[in-house]
Amino acid sequence: MKVITLLLSLMLILGMGACKQNSSMPEVKTISAMKKVMMGKDLSAHLQWDTIPREHLFAIAPLGRIQGEVTAVDGQLYSSTVDASNHVVISKNWDIQSPFAVYANVPEWTTFEVDEAINSEDELQTLIEEVASKNGYDLNTAFPYRVLGKFSSIDYHIISKPLNEVEHNHELHSKAKKHFHLENTSGELLGFYSTNHQGVFTHKGHFIHTHFIDEQRENMGHLENLITTNKIKILLPKIK
Fold first, then answer.
1. How far, CA to CA in Å, does 77 sit from each of 5, 27, 74, 157?
2. Can you tell me the distance from the alpha carbon of 176 to that of 66, in angstroms, rounded to the nearest whole number?
3. 3-state secondary structure of 175
4. Which residues are CB-contacts of 144 (< 8 A; sequence separation ≥ 6)?
5. For residue 227, which of 130, 152, 162, 163 is within the disulfide window of CB 3.0 to 4.6 Å?
6. In sequence order, which ranges of the chain are alpha helices (DSSP H)?
């Protein structure tokens, strides 16, 4: 009986420790859901960006009625669109809206240096899971991540739905993407990981949603693929 009591007490202590760790993580917040946009059910503005706290804000979302991309990095908001000449245009205007979004306010990050090649977005997800799990992060709790370094290859898109196009579905969504390719570029990946938000901010069968922004702040959009051959830094929210 004493052994059982001791085991129960130990489990309670460990459980309290896990809860304490999870509660110290910055809260990941969502606005509406990706699936409502993808299926054409609701493209209306659910978030006005100048109404949320900016301090240490990290966020990703589409712009307006999916006419661009939005990325916030440590309180600085960037939106990207594509002009008539197929050039990327970056703006820092806060008076913009989004139909869905995922964000968190993260004051401190822990850096993990990784010397491992990545050859696809799927491999990126696996690496994020490995680094997080190895360092005590709960993979059942949503969290943001950052990847800093020089990338051998980056493929990204900017959603650019025509303003006069009323209907929307998966096919029209794919057609609205403007694709870009970069080589040997330094920058940052900002994304959010979750096993519980498929259709909310990740696609079905995937646990990450990632944006790319380069050092010069001249390219930014939704990550499609990447190749890394150099050392990179993976940043996860600091656990207190």
1. 53, 19, 8, 18
2. 9
3. helix
4. 26, 28, 58, 104, 106, 190, 191, 192, 193, 237
5. 152
6. 2-23, 34-38, 121-134, 170-175
Contact assessment for residue 214 and residue 156, using Cβ atoms and an 8 Å cutoff: no
Distance CA 118, CA 194 (A): 20
Q: What is the pTM of this model?
A: 0.89
Q: How far apart are the first and last CA of the chain?
A: 36
Q: Which residue type is seen at 71?
A: T
Query: In DSSP terms, which residues pair with 220 in a beta bridge?
Result: 213
> Model confidence at 12, in pLDDT bands (50, 70, 90)?
very low
What the block records as the tokens of 1 is 């009986």
**Rounded CA separation 158/172 (Å):** 14
- The conformation of residue 6, written as its DSSP 8-state character, comes to H
State how far the Cα of 81 lies from the Cα of 201, in Å rounded to an integer: 20
Residues 6 or more apart from 6 whose CB is under 8 A from it?
Answer: none
pLDDT digits (tens, 9 = 90+) for 36-65: 998 889 999 999 999 999 999 999 999 999
